[in-house]
Amino acid sequence: MIEEKGILFILSGPSGVGKGTVRKALFEQDTNLKYSISMTTRSKREGERDGVDYFFRTHDEFKEMIQQRKLLEYAEYVGNYYGTPKQYVEKMIEDGHDVFLEIEVQGAMQVKENFPQGVFIFLIPPSLEELKNRIQDRGTESEDLISSRLEEARNEIEMMDAYDYVVVNDDVMNAVSKVQSIVQGEHCKKERVIKQYKSLLEVEKE
């Protein structure tokens, strides 16, 4: 029997495109998927657990991991570091789980550099007008900030060529269905199966 390894899927796209909504809906339908737990230097909040909500580390520990290239990506936000630990992701993959990383475009480019064998999915809105409506519907941002986000989105959409797949988020369940098809298709690629299959044939010969 072929024991398949998991795959790292990176779900990315402009702010406001609905990455979190699509990822949550996807996880409700597929229990084999694992969400990548982030590492942070911020203080643990009430009810949070290490290794469940985040991997909590000190600033010195985090900086040491940066130097040792033990993070797939990281960023600093309001005085604290956030990042994706490479060892955790690799263990989940070895255990046969597909790991999903939901991340902004700049972080995805870091992952591409450090883990090029990942599968990169770019989520885009049906139009920039629709993206503007979604951001406005949040009701949390000024017109100036909305304009800034839209300009940033235009620049990020131009980076589409760096991704393996593009999914239009016109409807959440439609987008989820397309992502599921990508997951299934990636597992059927001969490059992922042939090595294990040949090993299996060698065992049967003995």
CATH level 3 topology of the domain at 8-36 and 97-205: Rossmann fold
What is the number of strand segments? 9
**How would you describe the shape?**
globular
**By helix and strand content, what is the structural category?**
alpha/beta
Low-confidence stretches are none
Catalytic activity: GMP + ATP = GDP + ADP
EC number: 2.7.4.8
Domain Guanylate kinase-like: 6-184
Keywords: ATP-binding, Cytoplasm, Kinase, Nucleotide-binding, Transferase
Annotate the secondary structure layout.
Blueprint: E1 8-12, H1 19-29, E2 33-35, E3 39-40, E4 55-56, H2 59-67, E5 71-77, E6 80-85, H3 86-94, E7 98-103, H4 105-114, E8 119-124, H5 128-138, H6 143-157, E9 165-168, H7 172-187, H8 190-205
Parallel strand pairs: 1-7, 1-8, 2-7, 3-4, 8-9
Antiparallel strand pairs: 3-6, 5-6
Family: Belongs to the guanylate kinase family.
Main location: cytoplasm
Domain Guanylate kinase-like: 6-184
Describe the structure.
The chain is of the alpha/beta class and 206 residues long. It has a domain at 8-36 and 97-205: Rossmann fold, CATH 3.40.50.300. It has 8 helices and 9 strands. It has a 5-stranded parallel sheet with strand order 2-7-1-8-9, with helices on both faces. Strands 4-3-6-5 form a 4-stranded mixed sheet. Helix 1 (19-29) packs across helix 7 (172-187) and helix 5 runs antiparallel to helix 6 (143-157). The longest helix has 16 residues, at 172-187. The protein starts with 7 loop residues before the first strand and ends with a helix. The model has no long low-confidence stretch (mean pLDDT 88).
